[in-house]
Specification:
Blueprint lengths: L7 H22 L1 H8 L3 H5 L3 H25 L9 H26 L4 H23 L3
Helix pairs in contact: 1-4, 1-6, 2-6, 4-5, 4-6, 5-6
């Protein structure tokens, strides 16, 4: 795999879109349920350096974006016939599904609630599909 074949602008925008989805998902959409499932209070959250947390989180989105872009580039017929956005979403969704499976498996052994597994698992699946779709649209 030649890294020069990666559309870096697509990776950047895909990563940013995943970050925004995460802000919405773990904020106004499911933030209260997620925090309750983890036993986190607003006071606990205020003790965290959000800038540092966002920076580290941003790195994980870029890693996921690069991984999805590599898979898009590895499949020769992926973007045939002008369906690259959909193919990217499919590839990203499959990577998200694999990530969801791992998250659920870990949560089972950590004895986490089903509610937490659903919140995190659904996010991982949708996040992968979103990032893949955005990246795919640049090929």
């Amino acid at each position: 795999m030649n890294l020069s074949e990666i559309n870096w602008f697509g990776v950047l925008l895909g990563s940013l879109s995943g970050f925004i989805l995460g802000a919405l998902w773990y904020g106004p959409l499911f933030g209260k349920l997620w925090m309750a499932a983890l036993g986190i209070t607003k006071d606990d959250a205020k003790k965290t350096s959000m800038g540092w947390l966002f920076a580290k989180s941003g790195v994980t989105y870029v890693v996921l974006g690069i991984t999805i872009a590599i898979f898009i580039n590895m499949i020769p017929s992926c973007c045939a016939e002008g369906y690259c956005c959909m193919q990217g979403a499919l590839i990203g969704g499959l990577i998200g599904l694999a990530n969801t499976s791992n998250l659920v498996n870990n949560a089972l052994y950590e004895m986490k609630s089903t509610k937490l597994m659903l919140i995190n698992g659904a996010y991982a699946l949708l996040n992968g599909a979103l990032i893949g779709g955005v990246i795919g649209s640049f090929y």
